[in-house]
Amino acid sequence: MAKTWTWDEVGDKVDSTGVVKLTQTQKQAIADEWNIAESKKKDNLLEGLRHERNRLLKDTDWWGSSDNTMTDAQKKYRKDLRDLTTGLDTEEKILNVTWPTKP
C-alpha cells in the first residue's frame, strides 16, 4: 500500500541561511504534495505494465489471422496477458506480477 505522509513527518527547510522552521500548515502542504506523488506512483507502474502487456499482445496478433488456427496454448497465453492487470491494486502486486510464458 502507498505511504501516506502526515505533517509531522516533514522536517524543517534548510537553505543557504540555515534551518528555516516551517509551520504545521506549510508542512501539511508539503505532505499533501508527497501524497499526490505517492498516489501517481502506482498509476505509473500500472501504465508501464499495460504498455508491455499490449506490446506482447500486438506481437502475437498474427496468431489470430484468418489463415492460421491458434493452439490452445496460444489462446491461453493471450487470455492470460489480457487478464494480467486483474486484481493489481497495490504497488507490491504490480511489481511482483507473474508474466505468462509464451508458447
Gyration radius (Cα, Å) is 22 Å
Task: Sum up the overall morphology in one term.
Answer: rod-shaped
Name the helix and strand elements from N-terminus to C-terminus, one letter apiece: EEHHH
Low-confidence stretches: none
Helix percent band: 40-55%
Instruction: Report the major sheet.
Output: 2 strands, antiparallel
Determine the oligomeric state from the structure. single chain
Please state the structural category.
mainly alpha
CA(first)-CA(last) distance: 34 Å
Strand order of the largest sheet: 1-2
Number of domains: 1
What's the pLDDT, averaged over the residues? 90
- In DSSP terms, counting alpha (H) and pi (I) runs of 4 or more, how many helices? 3
Tally the beta strands. Answer: 2
Instruction: Indicate the proportion of strand residues.
Output: 5-15%
Q: Could you describe the 3D structure shown?
A:
By secondary structure, the chain is mainly alpha-helical. It has one domain. It is 50% helix and 6% strand. The chain contains three helices and two strands. The chain has helices at residues 24-59, 72-82, 91-95; strands spanning 13-15, 18-20. A two-stranded antiparallel sheet has the order 1-2. The longest helix has 36 residues, at 24-59. It is rod-shaped. The model has no long low-confidence stretch (mean pLDDT 90).
Strand-helix topology:
Blueprint: E1 13-15, E2 18-20, H1 24-59, H2 72-82, H3 91-95
Antiparallel strand pairs: 1-2
